[in-house]
Write a structure and sequence with these properties.
Elements: E1 2-6, E2 10-17, E3 29-37, H1 39-49, E4 54-60, H2 65-72, E5 77-81, E6 87-93, E7 99-102, H3 111-124, E8 130-134, H4 145-155, E9 159-163, H5 166-174, H6 176-179, E10 183-184, H7 188-195, H8 199-207, H9 212-223, E11 228-232, E12 238-242, E13 245-250, H10 262-275, H11 280-295, E14 314-318
Parallel strand pairs: 1-4, 1-8, 2-6, 4-5, 8-9, 9-10, 10-11
Antiparallel strand pairs: 2-3, 6-7, 11-12, 12-13, 13-14
Amino acid sequence: MIITFTANPSIDRTADLSVALERGGVNRIVSVDDGPGGKGINVSRALVLAGAETSAVFPAPAGDPLVQAVKEANVPFTLVERDVRARTNLTVTEPDGTTTKINEPGSPLDDDAQRACLDALLEAAKPGDWVALCGSLPPGPSEDWYARMVAEFKQAGLQIAVDTSDAPLVALAKHLEDAAPNILKPNGLELGQLVGVDGPAIEAAAENGDFLPAAHAARKLVDRGVTAVLATLGAAGAVLVTADGAWVGNPPPITPVSTVGAGDSSLAGLLLALTQNLDPAECLRHAVAYGSGATALAGTGVPSPDQVDLDRTKITELPLG
């Protein structure tokens, strides 16, 4: 079972433009797509399409449009009921695949709601299950909330993946000695935040075919107790680092449509492969193929297995020395 948690869920509204976005001008939308959003919900959506056992845990009012959207996506879920609406996030996509996001901050989670979320996760998962903590935090929880949750889940015998950013990610990095997750999924900029190096330089190197800076940075997190680091590096691909080695994955050729949900789909692909006991190289192959599959879809689309090109996803082992 893979349980996902989205602390700050949303309705994701994607607006497609026929020409490049003109800042300060009048931009006409050619199509709009609304769907259930939040990183954990996206992960569960991809897992459902792959036939994996999953459940999404998130806070929202029982009658919120988000709840209906999750039902329509056939995603099993546990609702932590609240009396404030889920946020709506806007994504604007341009014909060349450029994506601009405008995200609401989300509704506050008070202490009672935070405890209810934690209890719902502990009730849904049993020892050995995966729990994926995904996305930003709404107002209310302290920056170290994910770190405290990881520490408690480890004591409960759960396997934990974390995909977050900014202050919650930095706070987690400060507590790795007690709260190191099994999987940490930063992008290049976030990887730089985590280990105190130049994130843009990591991404620039990967764009030029040099993945060693990303791998060396990820190894620092493995040395501090993280079991595996999946560093997603945009169109260049991704790096997976464990105590046993490092691998780079290059995506198959695609026509990019929208990057929304690509990182979420990468995490879904990795978790799917891990539950099948595949080796690290094949786990990375699934992660990269799922991420690129999402990039080829419009809106907040997540790929089904027949939209994932495993055969043309290249995996190479990296010598870290």
